[in-house]
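The authors assume throughout that readers already know how a fold can be written as discrete tokens. For illustration, here is how one protein appears when written out as sequence plus structure tokens:
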Amino acid sequence: DNDEGRFVADDIFSTKMHGQVPNKGFAILYRTNAQSRSMEEALRKMNIPYRIYGGLSFYQRKEIKDLIAYFRLTCNPHDEEALKRVINYPVRGIGQSTIDKLLVAAGQQDKSLWDTIHQHLGEVGLHQGLQTKVAQFVMMVRSFRTMLDTRSAYELGEYIARTTGLLQDLFADKTPEGVSRYENIQELLNGMKEFSDPAGAGGGTEPGTDPEAADQPSMRTLPDFLIDVALLTDADNNDPNDQDRVSLMTIHSAKGLEFPYVYIVGMEENLFPNMMAVNSRAELEEERRLFYVALTRAEKRCTLSYANSRYKWGTLQSAEPSRFLQEIDRQYLQLPARQQAPHAGHQPSFAERNGFAQRPAASPAPRRSFLQREQTAPAGPAPGQGQRNLKRITTAGQLPASAPSSGHASAGELPEGATVEHEKFGKGKVVKVEGAPPDQKATIFFPSAGQKQLLLRFAKLRVIADP
């Protein structure tokens, strides 16, 4: 998705230069708020000003600032602003009156707040129960600090998010706002994974460097990540009165607005349409209606993009182009030129002929395909109409899977109530299985990570015991 962000930023810059288009003539639309991260980072690196319509920029959202505060405190325990922000979040029984006592004691002793709770806690005058809670918080932060030089930014960041209880606190909130906050935290961790992964950081070696040293790249740590974030978020201090900015917004927020140039990003199955909508006809139609709304926001050109792979839950997972792309009449599309000419004797598949083919699984880096719809062409059929003659495109991810390796569960083989093991979440119990291959999903409760919904074709589950 970082490549997708770079493509969009590059295309906006190119269109601006060639067409003398102001920044406010562009809009980037996405299905979920969490998708703004990669777009914001790409625009910032290109020095293209932007605004989040009807919301906050990614790094200004409360849940992101909370987790970043834990990162700052881990790197510098004397960061008093970060310490005061998270000492009682998630709630651990250290109320404001206790924090005030600690601040007064720190002032009287001419010590930092961290020194006071770390070395002089017994002198503050708290009762034993409160002392224990504060001491446990101190021990937790100290344990994080021992990992600063031995864990990558992602490994330590994900550990902090879980150990502090922040992930569990957000996961427990099932309101739309709570789900959005949880998705934002997951997107931050996805970004940290890409930052920590040398292969995803751009690859290649600088002229004059030792090739053997290049084979063993230095680990990117949490302090490195915070420096990168600080450089990115400097743009948040730009003049708020500057109205010439690219607009970023969810598709829901775009209703009633129009822009000369619109980019709809994340056009992938289980993202748009949303994973929770693919098994409900009514919800799928609502997603299709939203796609129509997004398309009609463009006055001159609408660019559609999807990623062949994205980081999810810390792993790079392949993605399929959205079914909505396959429903657009080809006469209204300007398809991208293929990256490579097919070899002699190769017969292109239907998906390849139409620009939707998947890259091979062994390809070292995700590639992107992009579609552009010219608004000067006649309007296409409304959603739900004129689709009977459209063929369903079969992509690599939809072909029948080969026989699974021994011990691993595949679609159709996982009974409810079974005990399974996941390489990341450990042992868990299957709550329910729904849908049909290749989109079959299992809801599994893991004692160490809570309840998760996993796509069976990606989950790599091992059945330990049948119900």
Remarks:
- The chain is about 35% helix and 15% strand.
